[in-house]
Write a structure and sequence with these properties.
45% of the residues lie in helices and 20% in strands. The chain is an alpha/beta fold. It folds into two domains: 28 residues; 105 residues, Glutaredoxin, CATH 3.40.30. About 4% of the residues have low confidence.
């Protein structure tokens, strides 16, 4: 019986990730996190029925912890929920409009309306549940 090597596991994970990426592309949403700023926010909020915006800053340690979680969720919910990032230091109108007083803050929009908000660096499972609850997507 041949022993399974760690490299085989790595190759399998890479194949599975690439397959998910290809499937997401077929659905028309690559699962990428889009950049949102004061000028593009309104158009993006109107374009995407389900949108989560990660409001963050370069200097924020917890924001750096949330970033890969948001990227994972964007891939997992590709074609159903759109994810964006907004640098609070560069976009004061968005920060002011939504009374952002702590970061990271995730803003959840359904059909252009704010329906939920999460403040702080929460675990991926908790954020996944919040996305599913906010938008009824699984």
């Amino acid at each position: 019986m041949e022993e399974k090597r760690p490299m085989d596991d790595d190759l399998q994970r890479l194949r599975e990730r690439r397959l998910r990426e290809l499937e997401a592309g077929i659905l028309g949403d690559s699962g990428n996190v889009i950049e949102i700023n004061d000028d593009t926010f309104q158009g993006i909020a109107e374009k995407y029925p389900f949108l989560v915006i990660d409001v963050w800053a370069e200097w924020c340690g917890p924001c750096r912890m949330v970033a890969p979680v948001v990227e994972n969720l964007a891939r997992d919910f590709a074609g159903r929920v759109t994810f964006g990032k907004c640098n609070v230091d560069l976009n004061p109108r968005i920060a002011s409009s939504f009374s952002i007083s702590a970061i990271p803050t995730l803003l959840f929009f359904a059909n252009g309306m704010l329906v939920d908000r999460v403040v702080g660096a929460l675990p991926e499972g908790t954020l996944r549940s919040r996305v599913t609850r906010a938008f009824g997507t699984g």
